[in-house]
């Protein structure tokens, strides 16, 4: 019997439960959000499917969009203090080329800076006091991470009411006499306003393991771990569920200048061995890669995995220049990809750039280097489309990911053999508020670079800097 005849015979509310539960995982995220609002029967099926942990179809990635400072409040945003408008964030669905406005929990979405995202749907955000939280922007679930002042190189000065009035950041820098990043030399602490610390310290956050429910309470979450690449000198800090403070992961190797990290797959190690814990790979400015067991009961230690990688500029230049960025991607177990993003000063041939006088640079190409466990060395990938194999890369402050393209029946709206970039700094208060972000899709087959479909108008605005989101209703 067809769906239409079944609906006429008994109504949509009378559809069999097993049929509803089989359809639900195949729906895109926006339809899954609307599903329980149809009727009580559908709401019950939705609740049962969520409790059973039924798998979801691979979601199309979203782009978290900047705010339009000139937009007027809508009919639902007419609070006297404008709080409703400030609590709404907008996300561009790549599959549809349209934006969705989703209300977010406090603090106001407009005050948050996103410094990381995970393939599980979670964002790592920094509020106006530079405090970090894990946030699922679809479900509204939120967890506080340890205070910024618990980082070993950050001090907080508080007023009589206990609120942070300023932060003291103890800088260190690379002495020219050292290796890739040199020796550490300390300088007098710098005092920063509460909202400025997030620009100076938080390079990138990686959700090593996503939160999971451990009880019936809305606040009962456990099992998560977050890795933070932070200044000074690109250090690694980690916080796990239940931790009251951040702990340095690289205490024994303080001068490595880490630039990216990626959560490794659980199926097998990079060397092909089986494992039952969650490791993470970290890459320094020279392209060296280490593997860490963040689940270790004792202090985790790094295992050297990949040697330095020689690209078109030195590792130190990449670390210090806004025009050069490196990313680490796991293509498959035992196979890593180093992506070197090439950028130049903005020029007129990119007609879609908003306000060229406020665009610092734009992406012009990529260099790809492949590492395999069999060779143990980096090798330049001359056939970029062959290396990607019809897949796509998503890079920026978000998790560095390789995903199937729409051509394979996955991730609707994602183009094969393309690299999806967002702007990722080095950030400053000026760059985040005054400079148009370098966001676009680079096709490695023809070298073209264009904004994501439906995003050109929104990229006229700057704050907050856009980031890739991989929506999920699991949290």
TrEMBL record:
Pfam families (alphabetical): Beta-prop_KIB1-4, F-box
Under the heading SUPFAM superfamilies, the entry gives: F-box domain
Q: Where is the KIB1-4 beta-propeller domain?
A: 91-431
Residues forming the F-box domain are 12-44
Q: Report the InterPro entries cross-referenced here.
A: F-box-like_dom_sf (IPR036047), F-box_dom (IPR001810), KIB1-4_b-propeller (IPR005174)
PANTHER family per the UniProt record, alphabetical: (WILD MALAYSIAN BANANA) HYPOTHETICAL PROTEIN, F-BOX DOMAIN CONTAINING PROTEIN, EXPRESSED
Entry protein name? DUF295 domain-containing protein
Q: State the species of origin.
A: Miscanthus lutarioriparius
